[in-house]
Amino acid sequence: MVDTNQTQTDKKEMSKKSEKLEIRLSYEEKQELSSVAEIEGRTVSDLVRGLIRRYVKVSRERLPRRRSYGWMIGLGLFCFLLGHMATLLVAHLHNLKPH
């Protein structure tokens, strides 16, 4: 049974323009981050978003990619059917030859 309330909640969450992330930092870490953001003329949120985007980009390039094997399955099925058709054709031609 489908939970329509959950489905509606999921759709509403997916349509949000942004999400809020709460993290804990020491007072010193927060002060250093605020200082860097101020020097760069950015907000702390903008600075953190940029850091996260760069981290994700570097991680995607560094981590192995999940391989899709769908095309291999399709190719295998195609080859199987092609071989089956060739076998039927050879059998049919063999039956047509005079003995």
Topology:
Layout: H1 4-14, H2 27-40, H3 44-62, H4 70-96
Key descriptive features of the protein:
99 residues, mainly alpha, elongated
Q: How many strands?
A: 0
Strand content bin? under 5%
Span between N and C termini?
66 Å
Q: Which secondary-structure class do the elements indicate? A: mainly alpha
Radius of gyration: 30 Å
Low-confidence stretches: none
Largest sheet: none
Percent helix range: over 70%
Query: How are helices and strands ordered from N to C?
Result: HHHH
Number of helices: 4
Give the CA-based shape. elongated
How confident overall, as mean pLDDT? 83
Would you kindly provide a written description of the structure presented here, covering whatever features stand out?
The protein is mostly helical and 99 residues long. The protein has helices spanning 4-14, 27-40, 44-62, 70-96. The mean pLDDT is 83. The chain is built from 4 helices and no strands. It starts with a helix and ends with a helix.
Summary, kept brief:
By secondary structure, the chain is mainly α. It has helices at 4-14, 27-40, 44-62, 70-96.
